[in-house]
Every structure is written in structure tokens, then in C-alpha cells.
Amino acid sequence: MKDLTHKIQFAATQLFFRFGIKQVSMDDLSRKLKISKKTLYHCFGNKNELVKQTVHQHFEYIQVRLNEISLLPISAVARMMQAAAFAVEELSKVNPSMIHDLHKYHPDVHADLILMREQSIRKQMIENIQDGREHGYYRLDFNAELISQLFAHQIIYITENWAQNNSQYAAEGVYQFAIYHLRGITTESGFQELNLLQKS
Q1: Euclidean distance between CA atoms 57 and 62, whole angstroms
Q2: How far is CA 75 from the centre of its chain?
Q3: What is the pLDDT of residues 118-164, one digit of tens each?
Q4: Which H or E run includes 196?
Q5: Which residues of the chain are modeled with pLDDT < 70?
Q6: What counts of helices (H) and strands (E) characterise the chain?
Q7: Which residue, among 93, 14, 26, has the nearest Cα to 57 in the 3D structure?
Q8: How buried is 31 (Cβ within 10 angstroms: 0-12 exposed, 13-18 middle, 19+ buried)?
């Protein structure tokens, strides 16, 4: 049963990312998986529960990848750029209507996702800033916790605004904002590192 549940979640993720949530019915999913609706509803009581579990599963995947990036033996600036590149890659896979549908039709799941994203981004940013300061890449004259919170809010705003306006520029916005952020907090050596990374 556990394998089937994972299989359903994987298929749902693919369909939601491609078409949005509203456009994918439980009938569509059962047909794609070649299983009965009874079996599908045995694993997930309703569509909202499926959406919730699917979103949480994908969020956990994102967390694993970000944690892997945070452990890379490279500079804090390079890790920040890697994380931004990963975010761009992931956003490019998502139909804007998926975020819109989450907000409109599954507000409880959407609220959970916003909270999880904010906490995750803040934690990643604070750890990145601490490491960057220890190695002389980031300045000491700013409030790391406040800047991390502002960064998290701005990233969430970019992606939410992208979904509401059906814009295709969220990925570019996230990447450019990450560079903008780094230019604001780096020391001279951190700035040089950033320039080298952008050129390469």
C-alpha cells in the first residue's frame, strides 16, 4: 500500500505541475495510473488530502536538495548561487496555475506551504550568512535574522505574484533577486567571488 501511495503522489505531482490542480480530477488520476477510483480513495480520502500529501512530499524533496547544497565544500556565495539555480530549475517545471489553484481551492494547504517555505528559507539564509561571515565573504554590519526574514518574504512574494498574474518571469526574478541580495551583503572578497561565479 505504501508503494502505491508513493506512486499516486508521484503521478499527481506530474499532472498538477503540468496542468494545475483544478484541471486534474481524481478520474484523470485513476485513468493515468490504471487503478479504480475506489482504490484511489482508499489511499486518499478526498482530493484535498491528496493535494496536501503531494505538496508536503514535494516540499520534503526540495528540503533534501537544499540541505545537500548547504553541505557542498564551496563558498557560502557559491552555495547561495547553487540554491538560486536550483529554485529556477524547479520553478520552470511548475504551471503558474498550480499555485493559483492552491491559493483559491486549497487555502489550508496553501497556508501550510507558505509557512513551511518561510521557515525553510529563513533557516537556510541564516546558516548561509553565518558561514559566509566566518570566511570573510559577508559583512558584519547588518542584522542577519532580519535580512533573512526579508529575503524569505520577497522570494515568496515573487512566486505568489507570478502565479496570480500568470507571469513567466518568476524564475528569472528569483535568480536576479538572489544576486541583488548578495551584492548587498558581500565584503570585497565576497563581491569578487560573486563576479567570478557569474562569469563562469
Answers
A1: 9
A2: 22
A3: 999 999 999 999 999 999 999 999 999 999 999 999 999 988 887 66
A4: helix 188-199
A5: 1-2, 163-169
A6: 10, 0
A7: 14
A8: exposed
Read off the pTM: 0.89
Domains of the chain and any CATH numbers: 47-199 (1.10.357.10)
- Helix 76-91 to helix 188-199 angle, to the nearest 10 degrees? 40
Residues 135, 29: Cα–Cα separation, whole Å:
50
What confidence score (pLDDT) does residue 168 get? Answer: 62
Classify the C-alpha dihedral 110-35-93-116 as positive or negative. positive
Q: Are 21 and 105 in contact (CB under 8 A)?
A: yes
Phi, psi of 138 (to 5 degrees): -120, 145
